[in-house]
Every structure is written in structure tokens, then in C-alpha cells.
């Protein structure tokens, strides 16, 4: 009986020691901003027996070695070339159990599942979590063009990641299915350029809403577009004003041309009269 009790307490002590060494990593995906630095959190328990020289820290993404630390210093011989000169640990904070990794200038290629592995004289463990990369979309730009049978609206935004979801509303009705959307990725950055346009035949006092949603960053861009017949009439008035300006100019040019023609004809007539007078004078002189 005493042996069973002893074994029970031994197993309990062993289990408690095993549970005591528990590293911590994020439970939900970590979001990194394109082009900026990203901290991948990972902490481990430290007690009075902890020693830096016996601490081994390894970061991996899949089978790729992102960063390694042992023998009290970084060991980067097996580091994947994609991460060269872009990773670092907080060595001064390891004594407080900080094994977090700093990753510089993140891009879409850095997305994936990362694993933090730690081994000390107190125990060892490894845990994984997901990393996603995202970028904010720019302020939408609106282009407005009149057509013979209506109006065309074009909205563009760029520099974002991943691909967004778009929505168009007229008053409270969803008219997204009446729009056309084009997505293109920049060949050098991989960021998205989005263009969305809609053609409207009736714009009298219309209220439109353009919505762009970037889910990973919780970015919601909502822009109201007000269209009214007054604006259309104003544009037509501007066109008429241009016509009223052009008409007098055209009449002035016509008057100048007519005046020039009149001047030329009068000059030719005067030259003919002069020639006739000279001929008559010459004839009289010969007769005398």
C-alpha cells in the first residue's frame, strides 16, 4: 500500500514538473503589415536553475529553418536564404523567458505556420501558430464621366492585400451584381490594384455607396456618392456656356474674313481703274 502511495506521488510530481514547462505562443493567427517588422511572440518559463548556455531556441516555417540559437549565440548556418539578415532574437530578454522572433520587411512570402521550439535544463516543448500578411488599401479615387445615355462611375484603390470584397449600394438596395470589378496584382510587390465601375442610365437624385472590406485588417472603406439632376444640368449649362463663348468668336472670325475679302476686291478694283486711266492717257498723248 505504501509503495502504491509512493508511486502515485512520484508520478504526480513528475507530471507537475512536465506541466510546469509550458511555452506560450498566440492562439490566433498573427497579422503582419506588408513592408514592416513583425514580432512573433514566444515565451518560456524560467527558474533559478536556468542557464543561457543550456538554452536552445529554434524557429521554423514548415521544414525551413528561420532562426536558431544555441551555445549562447545565434547559429545561422542552416538558415533558409529567404530570411538572411532579416531575423533576430531578444537575447537580453531571454533571462525573463522571451524567445520572440523579430522579422524585418515582411512580404506575402512570409505567410505560413511558424513553430517555436525551446529546450532548457527545465524541459523542452514546441508550439506552432499561423502568420498572415496584409496591407491597407489606399483612399479610393472616383472618376465621373458623362455618356449619351447616362453616367459612368469608376472607383480605384491600390496597395492592398489580400484581395478585398466590394459592395455597391443604391439607397438601401444592393446593386453589386450590376457592377464590373477588375483585380490585378503588381508584379513587383504582389499587392492588389482594384477597379470597380458601374453605368447608370437614371441618375436623378441618386445616392450610391461604395464599400471596400479588407477582412484580415478589419479595414472598411465606405464612401458616399451623391448624384442629382442639378449636377447634370449644371454640366449641360457649362457646355452651353462654352457654346455661347464659341459662337461670338466664330462670328468675329467670319467678319474678319469677309472684311479681308472686301479689302482685296476693292484693292483689285482700284488697281484696274488706275491701269485704265493710264491707258487712256497714253492714247491721248499718241494722238496729239
Automatic annotation (TrEMBL):
GO terms for cellular component: external side of plasma membrane. The chain crosses the membrane at residues 244-264. Residues 1-17 form the signal peptide. GO terms for biological process: cell surface receptor signaling pathway; cellular response to lipopolysaccharide; immune response; negative regulation of T cell proliferation; positive regulation of T cell proliferation; T cell costimulation. SUPFAM superfamilies: Immunoglobulin. It is found in: Cell membrane. It is a single-pass type I membrane protein. Keywords: Cell membrane, Disulfide bond, Glycoprotein, Immunoglobulin domain, Membrane, Receptor, Signal, Transmembrane, Transmembrane helix. Residues 35-132 form the Ig-like domain. Its main location: membrane. InterPro entries: BTN3A2-like_Ig-C, Ig-like_dom, Ig-like_dom_sf, Ig-like_fold, Ig_sub, Ig_V-set, T-cell_Activation_Regulation. This is Uncharacterized protein LOC768172 precursor. The lineage of its organism: Eukaryota, Metazoa, Chordata, Craniata, Vertebrata.
